[in-house]
Design goal:
Blueprint (H helix, E strand, L loop, with lengths): L8 H6 L3 H14 L9 H20 L4 H9 L4 E7 L5 H14 L4 E7 L4 H6 L10 E6 L5 E5 L4 H12 L5 H15 L2 H17 L1
Parallel strand pairs: 1-2
Antiparallel strand pairs: 1-3, 3-4
Helix pairs in contact: 2-3, 3-5, 4-9, 7-8
Length: 206
């Protein structure tokens, strides 16, 4: 029996553009809220912090020339569907970079959905059994057939997370600061290198 594709036209229709996602996030911060059912003070606080990080990444990250050339030369019809939540600290470090990439090719539609509102999609794109986000699914824009995926974070940051889970030697929030420090120093370089390789793989599979 063929496994049903959880990415349906209805899911795509519910997806937000990057501009819409940003506007939603800004509104949430203004109202002292976040996405999802957990509206605790800490989750709302993470969202406000993530909004500031989003703005900073948008201003400071620029795409390298090789990636720009690869994106502009692609002849594809893809949807990049990204699972995200406003409270997740990995989203502002990566989603603005993904948005900059998608902007360079009219054949790439970026759509963003909330993880906890789409459990079927999330369960199809688990990372080591976990619901790590942001998670990007690249699908054919016409058939919605899967082409590839990325996420929830660049490989060095992912290794940090996996190592911590295997041997948590410090308080979790101290570890989170280390991950954010890695992102700040990396300035979006690693995710760009990873996508440069993935674009070639996905183009061949398409």
């Amino acid at each position: 029996m063929t496994k049903q594709n959880p990415i349906t036209p209805s899911v795509i229709k519910q997806g937000q553009t990057y501009t819409e996602y940003r506007e939603m996030m800004e509104q949430l911060v203004a109202e002292g809220k976040t996405t999802g059912t957990n509206q605790s003070e800490s989750m709302v606080g993470y969202t406000a912090l993530n909004w500031r990080r989003t703005l900073r990444v948008e201003k400071t990250v620029s795409l390298n020339e090789a990636l720009q050339t690869a994106l502009k030369n692609l002849e594809v019809s893809w949807i990049w569907l990204v699972l995200a939540e406003a409270w997740c600290g990995d989203v502002p470090a990566n989603l603005p970079v993904i948005a900059k990439m998608a902007e360079l090719n009219d054949g790439i539609q970026l759509k963003i959905i909330l993880r906890d509102e789409h459990p079927d999609v999330m369960n199809a794109y688990l990372t080591n059994g976990g619901k790590g986000i942001p998670k990007l699914a690249c699908v054919d824009a016409d058939t919605l057939e899967p082409i590839g995926s990325w996420g929830p974070r660049p490989a060095p940051a992912q290794k940090m997370v996996m190592d911590y889970k295997a041997n948590p030697t410090e308080p979790y929030m101290e570890f989170v600061k280390k991950v954010q420090s890695w992102y700040a120093k990396d300035r979006g370089k690693t995710i760009q290198q990873e996508f440069l390789a993935l674009l070639e793989q996905w183009r061949i599979r398409d």
